Amino acid sequence: MPLPHRTSTTLADGREIHFYDDVAGPERKVVDTRVLPPVESGAELRWDPTTEEWVVMAAHRRSRSAHTAAPCPLCPSTDGSATEIPTGDYDVAVFENRYPALRGADSGQRHEGTSLTLPAGGRCEVMVFGSEHDTSLAQLSEQRVRTVIEAWADRTTALNALPDVEQVVCFENRGSEIGATLAHPHGQIYAYPFMPSRFERMQRASRHAHARGTGCVFCSVLATELTAGHRVVARSPHWTAFVPHAARWPYEVHLYANRHVPDLAALTAEERADLAAAYRSLLRRFETVAEAPLPYMALWIQAPARGERTHSHLHAQIFSDRATPLKPKRLAAGELGAGTFISEVEPEQAAAALRAADTWTPATPVPDQPTTAA
Question: GO annotations under biological process (predicted)?
Fold first, then answer.
């Protein structure tokens, strides 16, 4: 399937917006009638020398739209209401965030002893999954999920090409209980000017595995889960979903590409089509595994924009902070402060519950083993 029909233009303040249509149609009319001031961020990166991590300072984001904002800024514009989406019904829209955590002015470096401050380069984009307000990505059609995947891949390629970008992360926060500020189904794409520390640790683990001569650590994990079997949630010709052996969250699923592939842009047409069915099924399991839909966070782990891309293995992580809608897991001092999670849910039990929550029947036979990287 080729890339969905894309229309690209700018909003009233100069921010880019891109529309991806499920099927090609007439040229989309996009006119932003608002009068908007230029986007001002002032975000900074501050270095913590005790953990060797960057922290993003973005105080301006306190003024962004709240969950109860009316009218919804992600619904289509009408004659009486101009929103961030300057058109009628649409399929998928991606635009630069008006309150970006990453888009600082070039104010140079500042040093104060061990303290280092840099402008927060990079880019933040909002991806809206459709014009319908009262729904979720899991409830949209498989074709729409495929369009979302194509848009993710297209934006990954575009953002990786920017000179100040090191890592592109596509993610979704679903549910106000878990921090989503808007109810309209949407996700975000962050193009970081550095590699986030957790991704950096994954790269380090992969380098160590290659140095030991055991090949890709992610391929090894996938093979281990397939052999064990009891934590596997579902499989298809190109994807495997499982609850990790060392799951941190009450419900946590990792979705691995069966083939060793660095990012979404590198997937074949068959892998993307299969992913649409697989990903949609997993999200539906989070909606049906408990007596009410569980809020969740989801993100894609992709190769960095440059350097050591062969050590990365594309996969998604989807997790909820609660085992039931009314019982959230509260992170304690040892977890937030020391960084060591304590899980109170057996991964094997969570996997069994998720297997029973929905069905995922692949259209073609499932291979015995994934394609691994040496």
Answer: galactose catabolic process via UDP-galactose, Leloir pathway
